[in-house]
Q: What sequence folds into this?
């Protein structure tokens, strides 16, 4: 208690998180009640007392506002909900896989790549379809676009295109995203008589 509450104010240390309770060292704050009501501006010590009487915490949610905005809440519950949101966000951040084609791809190789793409999509990953040109193949970009568009049609039971195929340098690329889980279905992995590429010897 020997230190002045504003000592070291140039180094606002948030300890990698928002300030709460006694760590909120400004004299006045705007207070939000647990039910979301705006209680107006009050002395920080009064707001802290209010929170303690309710068995709750005082958490700074907008440190850059003037005065800072704090909310009275259950900090344990708040942390749990935040971690749940972060997990959901991580879950929804889809991985991006890539499947590469050639202009003159034969049917067997083409279907192997389609099965790979289907498996990635079934697991919830986005897939980047890339067609690479070599040498004089650049004279036949129309054939490359044809292969990519054919792949999109062959995957339409499990994915939808995010954009139109684009030519950049010697590659044509486009990205497809998985359909919602309840609308996805496997087609080529089940229907083809050969095993999936991972299990082949």
A:
């Amino acid at each position: 208690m020997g230190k002045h509450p504003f000592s070291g104010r140039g180094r606002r240390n948030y300890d990698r998180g928002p300030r709460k309770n006694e760590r909120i060292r400004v004299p006045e704050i705007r207070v939000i009640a647990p039910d979301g009501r705006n209680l107006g501006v009050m002395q920080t010590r009064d707001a802290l007392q209010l929170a303690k009487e309710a068995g709750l915490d005082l958490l700074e949610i907008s440190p850059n506002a003037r005065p800072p905005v704090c909310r009275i809440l259950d900090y344990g519950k708040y942390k749990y909900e935040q971690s749940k949101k972060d997990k959901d966000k991580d879950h929804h951040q889809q991985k991006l896989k890539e499947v590469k084609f050639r202009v003159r791809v034969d049917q067997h190789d083409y279907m192997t790549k389609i099965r790979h793409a289907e498996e990635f999509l079934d697991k919830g990953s986005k897939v980047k379809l890339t067609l690479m040109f070599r040498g004089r193949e650049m004279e036949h970009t129309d054939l490359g676009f044809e292969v990519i568009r054919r792949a999109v049609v062959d995957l339409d039971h499990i994915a939808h295109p995010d954009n139109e195929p684009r030519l950049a340098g010697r590659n044509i690329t486009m990205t497809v995203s998985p359909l919602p889980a309840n609308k996805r279905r496997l087609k080529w992995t089940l229907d083809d008589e050969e095993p999936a590429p991972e299990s082949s010897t």
Observations:
- The CA atoms of residues 48 and 82 lie 22 Å apart.
- Strands lie at 28-32, 38-43, 57-62, 69-73, 96-102, 126-132, 159-161, 166-168, 171-178.
